[in-house]
Design goal:
Layout lengths: L1 E4 L5 H6 L6 E2 L10 E5 L8 H11 L5 E6 L4 H11 L3 E7 L6 E7 L1
Parallel strand pairs: 1-2, 1-5, 3-4
Antiparallel strand pairs: 4-6, 5-6
Length: 108
């Protein structure tokens, strides 16, 4: 699993995702995928991870899911690392501050 951010990688992200290879997105890097929207805030907490894994399992290589949540899902990212290994790139579009956390999960 590779973690990309549009800013500085917080220390806790790399600590949790020890096997991740952080890359920085720069304006020169163009998005080469069209993500399917997935707003986790609208799903009951008890069903969220199952729904997320179901959606990710339905994606083909080269497809992506734009994940929106009310918090940074570090436990979910750890579960994804265990389940998918390097098959999914994690690209933060929005993180921290006001507003939701927005992450693109791209199947490689």
């Amino acid at each position: 699993m590779q973690v990309n951010t549009r800013g500085v990688v917080p220390a806790h992200a790399c600590a949790v995702l020890r096997h991740a290879n952080p890359r920085m997105n720069t304006p020169a890097q163009a998005q080469t995928y069209t993500p399917y929207p997935f707003d986790a805030r609208a799903i009951a907490h008890r069903f969220r991870h199952s729904a997320i894994f179901g959606a990710l399992d339905a994606l083909q290589a080269g497809e992506a899911m734009r994940f929106v949540n009310d918090h940074d899902p570090i436990p979910l990212l750890h579960q994804m690392q265990q389940r998918y290994g390097d098959r999914i790139d994690v690209i933060y579009q929005q993180r921290g501050g006001e507003g939701p956390v927005v992450i693109d999960f791209v199947v490689t």
